[in-house]
Amino acid sequence: MVWFTEYWTENIGLTIRAKEVKRIKSKYQEILVLDTYEFGKVLVLDGLVQTTEKDEFMYHEMLVHPAMVTHKKPERVLIIGGGDGGSVKETLKHTAVEEVHLCEIDEEVIIVAEKYFPTISGKLRDPTVKIIIEDGNKYLDEKKDYYDVIIIDSSDPISESEVLFQVDFYQKVKESLRKGGIMVAQTESPVLQQDYFKKAVSNIKSVFQYTGVYLGAVPSYPSGLWSYTMASNDVDIFNVDVNRDRFKDLNTEYFSDKLYSCLFDNPVFIKKILGEV
Ligand code: AG3
C-alpha cells in the first residue's frame, strides 16, 4: 500500500492511496499506473494525473463531443496527444467519422494504456483509427487543409507539451483544418492554473475568428474544475443549428443536449478572468 501525491502547486495537491504502483520509464517520461481505492486505475505521466477509470468520461466526453456536434459532418478527425485512447473512444461514437488520426509522441503511453486500461483504450485498434507516433507540432507541417475536427488532448504546458499551447502551433492547427473545421483544446484549470488558462485562451483567440471557452468537472485534475476552448475560423460556434438526432446514440454520462445548449454560459468569475466583463 502506498500514498501518491500530485502536487498541483507548491501548496496543494491530490493524495490517493494505491494498492499497487507500476513504474515504467519511457524515452520521454516516467509513467505510473496506480491501482487506487477511490479512482480505480490511474495513469500518471511525470507526476501528473492524466486519466482515471472513475472520471475519464467526464473529461473525454467534454473534450470531444461539443466540437464533434458543432461540426456539420465530422469525417476526418485528428487527436493530438491522447495516447490513453479515451478521446478516440468518444470520437468513434459519431457516425459521420471516416478516419481518426491519433498523433501521440510517446508510444509507450499507448502500450501501457492497452495493457492496463482496456476500457479506455479499447477502440485504438478500430479500423478507422490510424496511430501516428510523432510530435504533434511537427506532424501538422505535413497535413494542410485536411481535417474537420482537431482535438488537442495534451498534458500541462511543460516539457514536450509546451509548444502545444503556443500561437505558432494554433496557427498550424488552423491551416490543417479544411473548410468548416473546428478545433478544441484542453486549457487547464481556471482556478489553480489561471496563468496557463489565460495564456492558452488568448493565444487561441489571436489565431481564430471564433473562440469559446467552456467548463467541466474533472475531480482528479487540479482544483477539479477544468476548462476547454473551442475555436473555428469560419464557423460561428455560438450560433450553430445542430440536428438534435446527433446526440441520440452518444451514450454519454456527462455531456447532453441540454448541457450543449448553454455550453458557453460561463460563471461571472470566468468572464472576469477572460476580461469579458
Ligand atoms: N489530458 C489532460 C491532462 C492534464 C492534467 N493535468 C494535471 N493533472 N496536472 C490528458 C490526457 C487524457 N486523455
Question: If you had to describe this structure to a student in words, what would you say it looks like?
Answer:
With 277 residues, the protein is of the alpha/beta class. The protein has 2 domains: 2-52, Spermidine Synthase, Chain: A, domain 2; 56-273, Rossmann fold (3-Layer(aba) Sandwich), CATH 3.40.50. Helix content is 28%, strand content 31%. It has helices at residues 56-70, 86-91, 107-116, 118-121, 136-142, 167-176, 194-207, 257-261, 268-273, and strands at residues 2-7, 13-25, 30-36, 41-45, 48-52, 76-81, 99-104, 129-133, 147-153, 177-186, 210-217, 225-232. It has a 7-stranded mixed beta sheet with strand order 8-7-6-9-10-12-11, sandwiched between helices. Helix 6 crosses helix 7 (194-207). The protein is globular, with a radius of gyration of 18 Å. The relative contact order is 0.14. The structure holds 1-{4-[(3-aminopropyl)amino]butyl}guanidine (AG3). The site of 1-{4-[(3-aminopropyl)amino]butyl}guanidine has 16 residues, from strand 5 and helix 2.
Q: What's the SSE pattern?
A: EEEEEHEHEHHEHEHEHEEHH
Give the end-to-end Cα distance, rounded to a whole number of Å: 49 Å
Per DSSP, what share of the residues sits in E-state strands of 2 or more residues? 25-35%
Widest beta sheet: strand line-up: 8-7-6-9-10-12-11
As a percent range, the share of helical residues equals 25-40%
Q: Major β-sheet, in short?
A: 7 strands, mixed
CATH superfamily of the largest domain: Vaccinia Virus protein VP39
Number of helices: 9
